[in-house]
Amino acid sequence: MHDLGPFMTWYHHGWLAGYALPAAFSAGLAWVGLVRHSVGKGRLLGSWRSAALTLAVLALTGAVGIAAGLALPHLAKLPPSAAGLATGVTTMPRKRQDDTTQPYVKFMTLGIAWFRERLEYRMQLDALSWCDRFLDGFEKSTQLRVFVHELKNYVTDRHPTAVKTITNLFDAADKAMINALEVQTTTDEARREVHIAWMREPTDEEVFQCRSAFGEARNRCGDLLLYAYVHGRRTEQTELEALRAKALSSDAFHSAALPQQRRRFSLRRDLR
């Protein structure tokens, strides 16, 4: 039997102190910094691309922590874990005067700052793509009005300190939807021929005006939905989908204001 005592001692102490602890400290603090920085901007794991960028930032930060931990003993008598801790702190977000990182900063951080910029950009794209997919299926301004009204109440209940911001987003969406309804009504009246039971086909200009007004209304509704996405949680996905299904249903204008009360009434009718 060979004596594995020295080997096990190196494995448990040299590898742990020289590699694992610096990487864990730096990557852990980098994760905390990313989470704090992403508040109100999007979701770090909103898509596989953003998840890959997040892992790249953590991996690079861990590698820098290991390199710094191995180099520091030659420069000062500091434990490698302290190097990993310091490296993680340097990756935490700081206030900048502009939105772009200077080239020398990208070089000094070994590409970490570049990956962080790409991650923030990807989170914004993920949020916008999610909102576009969520609004697919809305073809009428009346459907949007029902949905946005319910969405405003939903978001206000969960973010009572942001009532002013939510109200401004709702007012802009409601104004755009009213304009879309007016454009559609005006177009329908112009298409009606006297003494004819049907309407003529819309002109290209009428089609453009209706689609343009509806597109603007859809975008303004998307602004409020975007707020709900970036400030909400993944667990709220089911509730938002329920609001969407309610607005797209055929009896959207006949349902009760409170979904809970509507379910009670339906149960009573079933019992009868």
Task: Give an overview of the whole structure.
The protein has helices spanning 5-38, 48-75, 80-90, 103-108, 112-134, 141-158, 163-191, 204-230, 237-248, 259-271. With 272 residues, the chain is mostly helical. The chain has two domains: 5-129, no CATH class; 135-271, no CATH class. Helix 1 runs parallel beside helix 3 and helix 6 packs antiparallel against helix 7 (163-191). 28% of the residues are buried. Mean pLDDT is 77; it is low at 104-108 and 253-272.
Indicate the topology.
Blueprint: H1 5-38, H2 48-75, H3 80-90, H4 103-108, H5 112-134, H6 141-158, H7 163-191, H8 204-230, H9 237-248, H10 259-271
List keywords for this structure.
272 residues, mainly alpha, 74% helix, disordered C terminus
Report the order of strands and helices: HHHHHHHHHH
> Counting H and I runs of at least 4 residues, what is the number of helices?
10
Number of strands: 0
Structural class, by secondary structure, is: mainly alpha
User: Span between N and C termini?
Assistant: 83 Å
Shape: elongated
Which regions contain 5 or more consecutive residues with pLDDT less than 50? 104-108, 253-272
Specify the biggest β-sheet.
none
Helix content: over 70%
Q: Which value, in Å, is the CA radius of gyration?
A: 28 Å
Mean pLDDT: 77
Oligomer: single chain
Q: Can you tell me the number of structural domains?
A: 2
Estimated share of beta-strand residues: under 5%
Brief digest:
This protein has 272 residues and is mainly alpha-helical. It is 74% helix and 0% strand.
